[in-house]
Amino acid sequence: MSKFQFKQFTVEQDNCAMKIGTDGVLLGAWAPVAKDTFSILDIGTGTGIIALMLSQRTDAQQIDALEIEENAYEQATDNFENSHWNDRLFCFHAGLDEFIEEPENTYDLIVSNPPFYSEDYKTNNEQRDLARFQDALPFEDLIEAADLLLSENGVFAAIIPFKEEETFIAIAEEYELYPVKITRVKGTPTTEIKRSLLAFKRFELPALDSDELVIETARHQYTPEYIELTKDFYLKM
User: Fold this and answer.
1) Which phi and psi (to 5°) does residue 203 adopt?
2) Are the CB atoms for 51 and 45 separated by under 8 Å?
3) Exposed e or buried b for every residue in 149-183, given b needs 16+ CB within 10 A?
4) Which residues of 82-102 are buried (b: 16+ CB within 10 A; e: fewer)?
5) Is 137 helix (H, G, I), strand (E, B) or coil?
6) What is the pLDDT of residues 34-67, one digit of tens each?
7) Distance separating the N- and C-terminal Cα atoms of the chain
8) What radius of gyration, in Å, describes the C-alpha atoms of the chain?
9) Dihedral, CA atoms, 231, 37, 166, 176, nearest 10 degrees?
10) How does 115-140 read in b/e, with b if 16+ C-beta sit within 10 Å?
11) Is the CB of residue 177 less than 8 Å from the CB of residue 200?
């Protein structure tokens, strides 16, 4: 499907190696936003889906996105320009290392749905591999960038495989970024936890807010929690 219609915007994805998936939608809907969020950065934006969702959810005046792969960058830029929020959205065609060389801004919210497949999964599609593999964006590089670019009271939010959660949190702590909210995601009540949604701040909170989200009870039978999370975006929710 080259076009994905949401309630308030459309996402073209025919030139993007990584199509819209549940992970991006989950992070876009879940990422904690404060009323006074002024600036947002989406690292590895792909189609631009997460940045667009956050444009809908917030009044942030500056929503920047970063994309290294040329076709995805062009697609995200088109998707931004064709949205209601084109005056607030901007996509940079650059790698993370380049972007952080001379950071001009800090951000109140940084989000990323990072590539996280290891070497074993390489295919013959270079674009898709670049989008999917951790060698394109190692966790340490992502967390170091978040530390450099996050405002004093800002939030850094990411979605990663559950099996990587402990490692990711340990690396974040080295940069003095501490988890304040964790939601662990299961496809159905009987399947194992597949993803972790993580939010970090520069200071520890007395208690960590953690919960579990189940997406479906049966095929296309969505749970009330998942509907509540995504109903502002999906047409049929």
Assistant:
1) -140, 150
2) yes
3) bbbeebbbbbbbeeebbeebbebbeebebbbbbbb
4) ebebeebbebbeebbeebbee
5) coil
6) 999 999 999 999 999 999 999 999 999 999 999 9
7) 19
8) 17
9) -170
10) bbbeeeeeeeeebbbbbbbbebbbbe
11) yes
Residues above pLDDT 90, as percent of the chain: 75
Tokens of 76: 């995200």
Write down the residue that tokens 């993803």 correspond to: 195
Neighbouring residues of 32: CB distance < 8 A, sequence distance ≥ 6: 109, 155, 157, 180, 181, 199
Smallest Cα–Cα separation from 98: which of 66, 61, 65, 131? Answer: 66
The pLDDT of residue 200: 98
Task: Give one DSSP letter per residue of 146-211, joined into a string.
Answer: HHHHEEEEEEEEEEEEGGGHHHHHHHHHHTT-EEEEEEEEESSTTSPEEEEEEEEESS--SS-EEE
Nearest C-alpha neighbor of 108 from the set 28, 36, 19, 8: 36
